[in-house]
Amino acid sequence: MTATPSVRPYRPADAPALDDICIRTAHNGRDSRPVYADPAVLPAIFAAPYVHLDPDLAFVLDDGRGRAVGYILGTADTVRFAAEFRAKWLPRVADRYPAPQGPPGARTPDEVMAGLLHDPERMIVPELAAHPAHLHIDLLPDWQGQGHGRTLMRTFWRALRERGVPAVHLVMATANTQARAFYDRLGFHEIAAAGLDPADVTCLGRTTQDTQDTGNTGNTGNTGHAQDAKRTCRRTGRTGGQSPPSR
Questions:
Q1: Which of helix, strand or coil describes residue 1?
Q2: Staple 136 to which of 49, 150, 222, 246, CB 3.0 to 4.6 Å?
Q3: What distance, in Å, lies between the first and last C-alpha atoms of the chain?
Q4: Residues 6+ apart with CB under 8 A from 127
Q5: Cα–Cα distance between 237 and 209 in angstroms, integer?
Q6: Can you give the C-alpha Rg of the chain in angstroms?
Q7: Sign of the torsion formed by the C-alpha atoms of 18, 128, 241 and 91
Q8: Is the pLDDT of residue 235 over 70?
Q9: Which residues pair with 73 in a beta bridge?
């Protein structure tokens, strides 16, 4: 019998698979392992804190055999999430990934990520206040372009609507044009944010209402968890933009 993939809620047993998906899609939609000495820093920022702090807003694409091959993660309240990230999540990982000491321009890729880890307040961007939720969405390459990303998105939107959240945003690497096309088809629009370099990152937002997209199924790429490029954005001299491809 052929296994049928489906979207389901996250389970704690999925955690290793989510870390792997994050690592294998984190470099502008591609494998981050050639770029980082310890690529586990990426899920420590963009995946694991979400299932720790907001597990009810975590959904996975199951390959039909119990293995997670994609996910969508996020929070309904970015301001609250940033505070809990600092108070509850950062103490769990700070020893493994200490804050970098050197000047930003001289940091290694791992140190850039560690800087983002230690600056959760970067997620709070005033221009995005009307879109209080944010998300990260990623699928392994073999599972892209089949409509699964759209299904994950609609599942997440529904969960936000049930919580009374009117709008959601993400921050993506501007260079990831494949992901941008996917978001455009799903009705996301660009939001200008002072201090964020549009050459590095793009902020997108939309309502949580579920309307039909205007294109085909498209390809999700590494769409929503702030890829490393999106994390090196500049805002008033600080590294990091949001959290998403979402920062």
A1: coil
A2: 246
A3: 39
A4: 191, 192, 193, 194, 203
A5: 35
A6: 16
A7: negative
A8: no
A9: 136
Residue 138, classed as helix, strand or coil, is strand
Q: Are 127 and 192 in contact (CB under 8 A)?
A: yes
Read off the pLDDT of residues 119-145 as tens digits, 9 standing for 90 and up.
999 999 999 999 999 999 999 999 999
Average pLDDT for 24-41 = 92
Q: Would you place residue 103 in the very low, low, confident or very high pLDDT band (cuts 50, 70, 90)?
A: confident
CB 232 within 8 Å of CB 173: no
Residue 244 token pair: 């998403």
List of residues 6+ apart from 28 with CB closer than 8 A? 173, 175, 176, 222, 227, 228, 229
Q: What token pair was written down for 4?
A: 């049928």
Can you tell me whether residue 60 is helix, strand or coil?
strand
